[in-house]
Amino acid sequence: MMRIAATLKAAERELTDAGRDASMAEWWLMHVLQVDRTGLLVRLSEELTASETEAFDDGMERLIAGEPVQHLIGHAPFYGRAFEVNRDVLIPRPETEELIEWVAEHVGAVGDDEIVDVGTGSGAIAVTLSLELGKRVHTVDISREAIAVAKRNAKALGADVVFHEGDCLAPIKDESIRVLVSNPPYIEADELLDETVAAFEPHLALFGGADGLDFYRKIIADSTRVLRPDWQLIAFEIGYNQGQVVKTYLSERYPEAETGILKDINGKDRIVFAVREGIAHGNEMDQAD
């Protein structure tokens, strides 16, 4: 029998050789042993039991084949909470936490039913905004399967979210919304994706038409119908090369608004926003004009 430390090292090497992310081994091992990182460190000199070894090896085969570790575990961390994920929803990315942070920081006083998130997925954005702001949030997704996952997440985490099945803003009432947030599908139709994403995550949630911008055009065009005259802000997550064009779409539709582009932790364009004139929040938003 190998000690846990040696098992982990061998697994990391195996994943690296297969072109996978080596850190998945530790994540999977913690799940098999039902321990956190500290618990794992404490046990490194011990040996795995036969059943633990079997479970770990089974999972390793799936990881080497490209399956995301979050699917094996059944959940992914987002903004300090665990969200159930499966093949019907996109795995929430850490970059999207920055979208939540920016919205939470810049939103003014809003009531229930005044925030909408387009493209529910796992519910990461809608659920998190509801919990962080203490408000009822509306969210729309065209995938019934995604909504089922998101409903379970809202229930498990105690969030107040209203779900709509439909295309973009179509199910949302006229002049009902003050804050619009979306991380829509934005990958160009012919872009080659890592096979771990392409084979295991829903294409419906990934691809945004030939230039990747279909959903921004559609949401921005229909936003004038659903936003109230006293709307506050619009915030989109974008692909790294889409900032300028999405900002232009927003400026054309809302010439009186302040618009801008924000970079993520990796220094890539990640968020495009519009803030209604008269409710600007100082100059920190001019960093990428």
UniProtKB/TrEMBL annotation:
S-adenosyl-L-methionine binds at G119, T120, G121, S122, G123, D141, N183. Residues 8-74 form the Release factor glutamine methyltransferase N-terminal domain. It catalyses: L-glutaminyl-[peptide chain release factor] + S-adenosyl-L-methionine = N(5)-methyl-L-glutaminyl-[peptide chain release factor] + S-adenosyl-L-homocysteine + H(+). Its EC number is 2.1.1.297. The keyword DNA repair does not apply. The keyword Transferase applies. It comes from the Bacteria. Substrate binds at N183, P184, P185, Y186. InterPro entries: DNA_methylase_N6_adenine_CS (IPR002052), HemK-like (IPR004556), N5-glutamine_MTase (IPR050320), PrmC_N (IPR040758), RF_methyltr_PrmC (IPR019874), SAM-dependent_MTases_sf (IPR029063), Small_mtfrase_dom (IPR007848). GO terms for molecular function: nucleic acid binding; peptide chain release factor N(5)-glutamine methyltransferase activity. Residues 111-195 form the Methyltransferase small domain. Keywords: Methyltransferase, S-adenosyl-L-methionine, Transferase. GO terms for biological process: methylation. Belongs to the protein N5-glutamine methyltransferase family. PrmC subfamily. HAMAP family: RF_methyltr_PrmC (MF_02126). Methylates the class 1 translation termination release factors RF1/PrfA and RF2/PrfB on the glutamine residue of the universally conserved GGQ motif. NCBIfam families: hemK_fam, RF_mod_PrmC. This is Release factor glutamine methyltransferase. It comes from Exiguobacterium aurantiacum. The gene is prmC.
